[in-house]
Design a protein that fits this description.
2 copies of one chain form a homodimer.
Chain A (H helix, E strand, L loop, with lengths): L1 H15 L5 H18 L10 H4 E3 L5 E9 L6 E12 L5 E11 L8 E9 L2 E7 L10 H9 L4 H8 L4 E3 L5 H6 L5 E6 L6 H27 L7 H31 L1 H15 L2
Chain lengths: 279, 279
């Protein structure tokens, strides 16, 4: 059918990652397939409208591919979202963002998974890699112990911080800082004036293994954790997840998409995403 | 009476700050007097036992002065705590810690105030300066806006980060990271091999004004804020404050005091502090 063909086209466009370097693309494909392989029986196909799955701005300078796979009701996963954005910059360079995130539903209170690479020039890369907590870590020290201390998540943050080109990246949004876990990796990597070889080397030798290890922790200790969530906890999760998802769209996508794709297209894309972000 | 004399001795010992440099001591005295002047009519004298107000280890290598002033019941302040620690290091150098913190009671849900300077050598200083939130900032975005965004707290963090010798200080305790606000200043200042002149210059020209401005924000917008705290909110604050205070003693003082003063004296000091830290 036409719909099946469109779905296949959206998916293959997403998996193209057409504008990023080979190590960057390989990492994205490995992360996507690791999540999909583990939860294949749970995940439904992406059913976003075709012009949301792939959109190119009228003047042709910006493109976005979005791939959201919701899960069946028996799954701890609520949905998995992958994306890439490519934008030609007025300065002559280009901006490339690729992301993969996975949100659990309220039958499991474990942290979510968030991964994003932002390459704003051959010599500048921002990495966001975190398992954002779904409960207040101050009020629930056991939650902190189980998901962050016992899993030794901080060792991966420390490993990346040892690389000389790696600097902390401090987002201007205080809300995003508040949502982050204490082991969140928010780093900016700036290298000497080369053609991007050094950043690709850092992606291949450091970001690639660290990201896969953190995703492994998420899959084994969070997504597949056997958690008992009572009715009161569930109500709390639904409320807190709701705030995070709404604010994430508003602060993150809501601020950049209108600039990249114009207000109308941005609105259409964000409305389509919001359906999945509603708790 | 003997007790009055002992109280006066404890207080004057505290205000001596006998081992730190002039700009460091001046800053501590200014911060203490700013808080005390504003809340003089609320604050009761320190009534810690004399050997907790000032303690010197048997071998004479470590000294601590503690000054806790509880507040009368009409005050938004629960208590104000100041301290200094001096320890001679086996390496020949010395370690000096000075701190001032102020805790609000549950009639006011505004952030607390925390300030600490740790000088582990003439060329190495750690600064902790924060208004730690007393509510989960993810669930209460209005609280984030009122106390952190509207007060422009982040500008002070940014000002310090511009100084070339200033680096982020990442504590190994994930709990302390979780308690910190998104505008928390945790920095390590390491300078070239001089006699400490450069760090004293940074204290005088940068840390001094920034600390006073942040304390001013705390006094005007937190301690003196007119907040309506309902019964449910109050129960939440009591629970969350309780976890923070218990864990702070355990993680922060509980790990360093036994090493500096021996297990027995450390236990006596910590027991005396715990009385005030009980919510």
């Amino acid at each position: 059918s036409i719909m099946d063909t469109q779905k296949k086209q959206g998916r293959s466009k997403f998996l193209e990652f057409p504008f990023v370097s080979a190590p960057h693309k390989n990492l994205m494909l490995d992360l996507v397939s690791t999540v999909e392989d583990r939860f294949e029986s749970h995940l439904l196909p992406c059913s976003l409208p075709p012009d949301v799955q792939y959109y190119k701005s009228k003047n042709g300078t910006s493109q976005v591919s979005l791939h959201i796979r919701p899960s069946n009701t028996d799954s701890p996963i609520d949905f998995v979202m992958g994306s890439w954005v490519h934008a030609e910059l007025p300065t002559g360079g280009s901006l490339d963002i690729t992301s993969l995130s996975a949100y659990l539903n309220s039958s499991n209170d474990a942290p979510n998974f968030v991964f994003e690479l932002i390459r704003s020039s051959p010599t500048m890369l921002i990495l966001v890699l975190d398992l954002p907590p779904r409960k207040d870590l101050v009020l629930w020290p056991d939650y902190l112990k189980t998901f962050y201390e016992d899993t030794k998540l901080d060792t991966h943050k420390q490993a990346l911080e040892k690389i000389p080109e790696v600097q902390p990246y401090i987002t201007s949004s205080l809300f995003i800082r508040s949502v982050a876990s204490p082991t969140a990796i928010f780093v900016r990597i700036q290298t000497e004036n080369d053609e991007g070889e050094r950043i690709d080397e850092i992606i291949k030798n450091h970001i690639d293994p660290v990201s896969k290890q953190v995703l492994g922790i998420w899959l084994d200790h969070c997504a597949c954790a056997e958690r008992e969530v009572g009715e009161e906890d569930k109500a709390y999760l639904i409320k807190r997840d709701g705030v995070i998802r709404n604010k994430t769209i508003e602060v993150d996508l809501g601020s950049s998409f209108p600039r990249l794709f114009g207000p109308e297209a941005a609105k259409q894309i964000l409305e389509a995403i919001k359906e999945y972000f509603t708790v």
